[in-house]
Design a protein that fits this description.
With 385 residues, the protein is of the alpha/beta class. It has ten helices and 22 strands. It has two domains: 65 residues, no CATH class; 298 residues, TIM Barrel.
């Protein structure tokens, strides 16, 4: 997708030639007319020296693409892993979460638009090397680090460097992403991830083109690739927007494709929309819409379907697909009853529950704890660590 085919604005922010701080980017090529084509995602922004791509964080220089947000963050926070949402990956454990700025989609309904749509680099107030981030996660007792808040696809080089440092320290890495990425960088990115939650924003290409200015097919390819070609644990989220992607017909198509292409064990989350960004005139998602979508998906054969952004212990808990027993009870992000053995099998009938279960559940609960990594590093240094 080049500049002329993006209906929500130009694919490059016009700017006078300038120097960009950051780290060298990968996946680009020099065009015959002197422009640089970024090949990170299917948008393939073609930009002159001194310009940024639509994502705003990948810039063209005389030497190629530079990632201007390498080593910089809009903030760090410890979240429950269920908030990503990941319900079948180390349940109950804390995850050190962070994001940067920018996005390679233009979703009119973005729920994190203050970060993903930011054109102000001033929000990137926190700095952290991959090694500091990994050491901080370990010191804070986090089992994993999450690339989230804005799409990590656009800061792939930084995310990969962090993942390598984390794995050396026994820390796992997870991503929350829209899945809009080209094949070669996709292979590199997911090779370093332990888990991912990928948005399936709708099951309609017109929705994707008009509200996100991308193609549905590229996202479906990512979902298939991650499930079939990698060891990354996969969960999927669909934000249901009243009147746009919540019809029975579309939900049936989504569920049927899901079972056929991803199988019944990949968890699917239906989340409630709230009016935001450029869709403030659309009402919030009714609770009954989420339950209707969940029923359609369960009837299609999915084993684990959840509702999110609402309080519903029953529809947010995990049940055995074989005997129906309650396996993991969730009250918002707080775990209750736990009926899995050490291997992740139902304690009542012995059927395996798909997921990554490593020992007993964590007890982090619903807490959300902001973290200043530089202050933490200084305190640890003063204490002799």
């Amino acid at each position: 997708m080049n500049e002329a085919s993006v209906p929500d604005g130009p694919a490059a922010i016009q700017a006078a030639p300038e120097s960009f701080d950051g780290a060298p980017g990968r996946y680009w090529q020099r065009l015959p007319d002197g422009r640089v084509q970024c090949d990170l995602c299917p948008r393939q922004c073609r930009i002159h020296e001194g310009q940024r791509g639509l994502c705003f964080v990948r810039a063209a220089t005389a030497d190629g693409i530079v990632l201007t947000t390498w080593g910089r963050s809009s903030g760090f926070c410890i979240d429950p892993i269920e908030k990503k949402p990941l319900n079948h990956f180390l349940p109950g454990t804390p995850v050190l979460s962070f994001g940067t700025a920018g996005c390679n989609l233009t979703c009119k309904f973005c729920q994190n638009w203050d970060m993903s749509k930011s054109r102000e680099m001033d929000i990137l107030a926190d700095a952290a090397s991959p090694e500091l981030l990994a050491a901080s996660a370990q010191a804070l007792g986090c089992r994993s680090v999450a690339f989230t808040y804005n799409d990590p696809t656009i800061f792939l080089e930084y995310a990969v460097d962090i993942a390598q440092a984390c794995h050396e320290s026994g820390i796992r890495t997870v991503a929350v992403t829209a899945g809009y990425i080209s094949p070669a960088p996709r292979a590199e990115f997911y090779r370093h991830l332990d888990a991912a939650n990928i948005d399936l924003k709708a099951f309609d290409d017109k929705f994707y083109r008009e509200l996100c200015t991308v193609r549905l097919g590229d996202v479906l390819e990512t979902l298939q690739y991650v499930h079939h070609e990698t060891d990354t644990w996969l969960e999927v989220t669909t934000l249901l927007i009243p009147g746009h992607n919540d019809s029975d017909a579309e939900l049936v198509r989504l569920a049927d494709w899901f079972v056929r292409e991803l199988g019944p064990d990949v968890p699917l989350h239906f989340s409630a929309f709230h009016p935001d960004y450029r869709m403030r005139d659309v009402p919030p998602t009714p609770h009954e819409t989420l339950l209707r979508a969940r029923r359609i998906a369960l009837d299609a054969g999915l084993h684990h379907v959840y509702v999110g952004n609402v309080h519903d212990t029953r529809a947010g808990s995990t049940y055995c697909h074989s005997c129906g027993a309650l396996l993991i009870e969730r009250d918002w992000y707080k775990l209750g009853a736990w009926n899995l053995d050490a291997q992740g099998n139902c304690s009542q009938c012995g059927a395996a529950c798909a997921g990554v279960f490593d020992g007993p559940p964590g007890a982090w609960g619903p807490r959300r704890q902001p973290v200043n990594l530089r202050r933490l590093a200084a305190e640890r240094a003063a204490a002799g660590f």
